[in-house]
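Final report, closing paragraph on structural work. Over the funding period we assembled a curated collection of sequence-structure pairs, and we close with a single example.
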Amino acid sequence: MSSRRPLAAEVGNYEGTFRLAQCAPLGQYWGGSEWQNGGCGLKEERLRVAVIGAGYFGSLHAEKLSRLPNVQLSAVVDVDRHRANKVAGVAGAVALCDTSRVADLADAAVVAVPTSAHFEVASRLAGDGLHLLVEKPLAANAEDAKKLCELADRKGVMLQVGYLERFSRVRRMLLGMAQRPRAVRVIRQGPFTGRGGDVDVVREVMVHDLDLLLQMAGKQPERVRARGREVITGHLDEAEARLGFDTFDASIRVSRVAERAERKVEVTLGDGERLVADLVKGTLTRFVNGSEEILQCAGGQDPLYVQDSAFVAALFDGHKPAVAGRDTLATIALAERIYDAAVSGEVD
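Its predicted structure, as stored:
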């Protein structure tokens, strides 16, 4: 299919982040399930994608998808008809107030509804045979996340999770250089936006940092201590956690009710070396015995555009999604441990 290659090439050129399979064996990916249309990837010339949720991130997804080759933004769904019309109108998509017609209009869907509704919405769409990109976290709890993965396997549909920072150039450089960390300190905070307040800040915000730490460690921490407090939403709006892995310790502080935005990861290595990633400024700085070197400055492609490109390319080429649903189960399980420790005050 000649129209697939431009998209695959575009994603593959993103500094080697993705190695897109020419023709992955059927069943090798997507949890070993067999995909109903057979062969290698999609047979259609264009992928019809629906966006579920026309809020902040849903509207961004719609804009990125409408720019992708081989993609037709076919429907936008939101309980608010005005918002659905506004987002759908830009790309000439159908505006809907519920998902009842989505399976007739789309091959795949991006789920960008509040976290508390992820399981209900994604289950319905996967049950109808749609391939899914679900905003992080996959579900509000580990049990529902596992059920979604199992459902996707049974239905033979692809399930990708929107861990946007996996597509950050600075984060990838940091992860590549921090092979043997001795200590990690993370701060992630920002003013209250009104988004994500249906669940606690650990599941909604801290999961980015837990995802990074689990990639560094390769396993769950042996010890967890945490605390948090409610400020605005009725859920934990601020939280701190101390995690003891077998080779390093990590501390994380997150807040969605802070005065200013700050997202930094500091990694202490051996021989006086320290790495500091500023995810707001897009810089990675290396400190060694008093010297300072900026290794990466802001720039490069839009991570959300690349993420959505990777989702589409995986469907056309039949390869594993960049962040598969099962790849995120450990992060959700750790988030639950931290939340339970913060609420109970007990050491896990």
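Residues 166-300+334-344 form a domain with the Dihydrodipicolinate Reductase; domain 2 fold (CATH 3.30.360.10). The chain has two domains: 2-164+302-325, 166-300+334-344. We thank the funder for supporting this effort.
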